[in-house]
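For reproducibility, we list the full input for the adenosine monophosphate complex.
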Amino acid sequence: MRGLMQTLPLNIAWILRRAERLQAKKTVATRTHEGTAVATYGQVCERTRKLVTALREIGVRPGDRVATFSWNHQQHLECYLGVPCMGAVLHTLNIRLFEKDLVFIVEHAEDKVVVVDKSLWPVWEKVAARVRCVQATIVVPDAPGPAPPGTLDYEELIAARSPVRELPEVDENEAAALCYTSGTTGNPKGVLYSHRSNYLHSLALTMADAIGISESDRVLPIVPLFHANAWGLPYACLLTGAELVFPGRHMSPQSLLECLRERRPSLAAGVPSVWTSLLEPLKQEKERGPLSLRAILCGGSAVPPALQKAYESEVGVPIVQAWGMTETSPLASLCCPLAAHRERGPEALDALRTSQGRVVPGVEIRLVGDDGKEAAWDGRSQGEIQVRGPWIASSYYKEDAREKFQDGWLRTGDVASIDGDGYMRIADRTKDLVKSGGEWISSVALEGLIMSHPSVAEAAVIGVPHPKWDERPLACVVPRPDARGRLTREEILDFLRPKVAKWWLPDDVVFLDEVPKTSVGKFDKKVLRERFKNHALPEK
Ligand code: AMP
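The corresponding predicted structure, in tokenized form, follows.
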């Protein structure tokens, strides 16, 4: 027997309508070259409706891809709303990709219109010269001077249009947004979010046992709007009435600090490398008085336990670790303690620092061992994490990737264990595990330990070829500024010796000025592996 409830499509128009009706007075603030621009959600929604009129006049039709090549700002938020609401697909381009990848992605997606920041024009211009599909370019004036010839000025376009009143009732399973994975192997892959998946994913961010975004929050997404839906934050804020603060293109630690001071957000989100670079400035800031932040949402790669500890004890702000992928919208799991952890005391709470948490309601998880069978949730057995749920991708856009999507589950490529409470600990990405003599060594665990050394700022561990063991771990270490030239290989190895099994001990340590980062700020181990592929490991 079928239920008798209404079946209105869960689409982005719900978010728009709710924001303009119930959260009209709430604000989005953007740091610009002229200071901070503040607009209400009411104004944002009205401008969004004008944007829809403008895009229709340009020729955008349902299903067309409209790309953004932008920093985090109010106009980007308007695209987040307007493009899906008119039935078109918002394609968020990663502004830090190589030109050749951008060309591939724009052509693969067949982007018809691109909204690009003036400050990024010199980068975009080169891509534009190599693609054929783009029919119109709209420039957001985030830097002084006129819009480049042959382009449309975003503000002029909006000012001259009247707001569309009737929006189509877009089917919830239609595509709303497109985001390409950073593509560590092969060409980048397109993940095509639906209205339904984005709507439900936004709700997950409002759950109390997740990050619990609520009307009383003010959220600073440092994570780019082009990195996997900005982790769902824009829509969750518009839905709940939480306010937004965008840093624009002003992303230096000093600018972010000013942003925190001026707008006093209650929640901020970014990858671990952002929080590493902000640790010292925030420690100093804390001396001047407590910070406004109630929590920091951090994910994208493993959060070093020492970093979490430092934020808790020295900055006074807890880091909430989340795990996910572009393919999972991205929020899939999040680490919040259970009541039972609190009862078990400080050690149980401490142990959570190495955990990526439990899957949020709406996502199911299984652990699959090498033998293809489900592994036990005993905190020790390791296997590949596989997930399914209404905001998990079922395939890639225009790409046959059957090996990645099996019997309704997404194979994440992440190796982990899960404990009896359902808390998962990522050991590594399959390709980052160090395979030594047929056994696995977790680079993530080694990095976490090395980064707890007081003289270490960053550490990445990679496998380098070894004639006997296949691969052996090499630790690439960035000393803190006051330890440069002083920290030694022996000191790192002595520090690790009592903490790890003998065969886990890296064969060598190299010192770097900086760990190379990917376009979204993660350690770029591909670059390190290439750089050190011929590294001569010392004889043991
Ligand atoms: P991307 O789709 O580029 O965001 O990359 C997703 C991958 O980032 C995942 O498959 C994980 O390998 C890694 N990742 C994301 N969050 C975490 C986390 N909290 N801890 C460890 N790895 C993570």
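The chain has a mean pLDDT of 95. Residues 181-182, 228, 299-302, 321, 323-326, 330, 356, 412, 414, 426, 429, 520 surround adenosine monophosphate (CB under 6 Å). Both points were considered when choosing residues for closer inspection.
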